[in-house]
Amino acid sequence: MPPTRGWNAEVTSASGTRVIVSGTHMAGGRITVRYLPNGPELVAADAGDYVYPTDVRVNQSGTALLVKAAGSAGGLSDETWLFEWSLDDRRLVSKARVEPSVLPPECQLQKTDGL
Q1: I need a surface site. Which of 20, 44, 77, 86 has the fewest CB within 10 A?
Q2: 103 in any annotated domain
Q3: pLDDT band at 5 (very low <50, low <70, confident <90, very high)
Q4: Cα angle value 51/102/104 (rounded, 5°)
């Protein structure tokens, strides 16, 4: 069985906000952020049934968490979604369904896959 892609990493935004980013590429998969040292845990990206996180990155300026989710929505049609979460404002900035061919390649899966 191939390894399940997952994320569990501490990220620091450009302004110094520290969060733990967690999630998995599997049923019920979504990406959560837990603000340190004892802030709330919030859902940053949840694309719904059968559409799971496949890539998680921090933007170049260090202000946003970017999540790609892909799969077969409801088991019927292939969908790819992009989420942008503001690390400092603690909110979803945008969610858009996109054509996957316009996106850069995903980060390679490694034994200890982080961001």
Answers
A1: 77
A2: no
A3: confident
A4: 80
